[in-house]
Amino acid sequence: MATKPHIVIVIGMHRSGTSLAAEMLTRLGAWTRDRLLEANEFNPRGYWEDADLVGLHDTILATLDRSWGGIRASLPMPDGWLDNPAITEPRRELEAFIRAGVEAANGTPWMVKDPRVCRLLPLWQAIADDCGIRLAGVLCARAPDAVAASLEKRDDLPRAFGRLLWLVNNVDALTAGRDLVGASISYDRWFTAPATQAAILAAAIGRTLSGAELAAATGVVSDTLRHHDSILGHGMADQLYRQLDLWAEEGERPAALDDLADCAVATLADVAPWIESTNDPEYLRDNLEVIAKEYRVAYHASAAKCAELETENNRLRSLVWRFERPLGAVRSLRRAIRPPVKRTAN
Q1: Which SS3 state, helix, strand or coil, does residue 135 take?
Q2: What Rg do the C-alpha atoms of the chain give, in angstroms?
Q3: Cα→Cα distances 42→226, 229, 301, Å
Q4: Looking at domain 7-272, which of 1.10.10, 3.40.50, 1.10.3470, 1.10.1660 is its CATH number?
Q5: What InterPro entries does UniProt report for this protein, alphabetically (predicted)?
Q6: What is the tens place of the pLDDT at every residue in 208-240?
Q7: Nearest residue to 14 (alpha-carbon basis) of 128, 133, 155
Q8: What's this model's pTM, rounded to 2 decimal places?
Q9: Main-chain phi, psi angles of 79, to 5 degrees
Q10: Which residue in 232, 219, 259, 4 sits closest to 107, CA to CA?
Q11: What does the DSSP 8-state code read for residue 96?
Q12: What is the DSSP letter of 338?
C-alpha cells in the first residue's frame, strides 16, 4: 500500500472474528481509542469496539428503523437513507467523532471495529470524502452456520434468522464497500495459517513484517477461540462464504464474488415485502385475531367436553347412590344365611 490509510475499518458480521482481527491490528501497530466496550463471557478478551461509536451507529440504525437484532434488521436499507434529514444530527456527530479520532491518532492508522458498520459504509465513505480522510477496509468472514450458532447462544436468535442476517450484512459490505474493502480475512484460517492472516492485516496498515514479527503477533491465536464447526451447505450464504474464504486464501478478489453479491441483493429485495408484512401492525393484528379465534373455539370445545364429563360423573354418582341401599341389604342377607363355620377339635 503506497499511502497509509488514516483509518482501517474492520468490517464483518457479528461473531465473525472481527474482535480477533481488531486485536491483531493493534498488536501490529494500529491505534485505537481507550473507550472500548467491556469484555464479557462471550468475548473474554474484549470486543475492541468503541463505546461512543457503537452508540452513534445504534442511533442511526434505530432512526432508520434497522436496529440490530430486530426483524427489520434483515431488510435492505431504506431508499435514499444517506440523505434522510432524520439522521442529520447523528451524521454530524459521527463526522466530529471521525475527525477527532484521526487527529488523536496523529498519523498512525486508526483501527475502527463495529459489525454495525457493514450497513453504514456509504455514510463512512461520504464523510471520509468530505474530510479528505483515507479509508481502508478488511472484511472478516466466517461460515454462516457457525455465526448463526454463536448468535443463538449469545442473543437467543433463531439460527435461520442468524443466517439471514449474515447474508444481509455481508452483501451490504460487499456492494456498498466494493471500492473500500481491499482484503478478506477467514476466521477458520486463523487456526491453519495465522501468519498469512496477520500479513494481510499488516498490509492494510502499510506494514511489512518479518517472520519473527508475524510469529510474535499470532501468538494470541488459540484453538480455544473456536467454539462452533464450519459446516457448509448449498444456500446463497454458503456460496458467498466460499468466495470470501477463497479470497482470504489466494489474496485476490474472486471474479464470481460480485456477481453472487448482486444476485443476493435481488433475492433480498424479493424477500423484503414478506418481511415487511410480518412486521406490519395490520398483518400482526389479523394473525392475532385468527389465533384468538382458534383459541376461543378450542376453549369452548374444551368447556363443552368438561361439562359433558361432569354430567357423566353426576350420573355415575347417582347410580352408586341408587344401588348403595340394595347392595347393603344383599350384604346383610348374605351374612345372615351364610352357614356357620364348623370348628374341628385339635
Answers
A1: strand
A2: 33
A3: 12, 17, 48
A4: 3.40.50
A5: P-loop_NTPase (IPR027417)
A6: 888 888 877 787 776 665 555 556 677 899 999
A7: 155
A8: 0.77
A9: -60, 135
A10: 4
A11: H
A12: S
Q: What is the pLDDT of residues 47-99, one digit of tens each?
A: 889 999 999 999 999 999 999 988 899 999 999 999 999 999 999 999 999 99
Task: Enumerate residues 6+ apart whose C-beta is below 8 A from 272.
Answer: 75, 76
Q: Are 73 and 272 in contact (CB under 8 A)?
A: no
Residues 6+ apart with CB under 8 A from 214: 195, 198, 199, 202
pLDDT at 283 over 70: no
Q: In what order do the strands lie in the sheet with 7-12?
A: 110-113, 7-12, 135-141, 181-186
DSSP conformational letter for 31:
B
Q: Cα dihedral angle (273, 274, 278, 284), rounded to 10 degrees? A: 90
H-type alpha helices, 177-280: 194-204, 211-217, 236-250, 255-278
161 vs 279: CA distance, rounded Å? 14
Q: What pLDDT does residue 1 have?
A: 43
pLDDT of residue 344: 60
Domain layout of the chain by residue ranges = 7-272, 280-338
Q: What cell was used for 289?
A: 385475531
| C-alpha dist (Å) from residue 86 to 39, 91, 93, 239 | 33, 9, 13, 36
**DSSP conformational letter for 64:** T
Strand partners, 186: 141
| Each residue's pLDDT tens digit, 122-167 | 999 999 999 999 999 999 999 999 999 999 998 899 999 999 999 9
- Contact (CB, 8 A) for 140 and 11: yes
Distance CA 162, CA 158 (A): 6
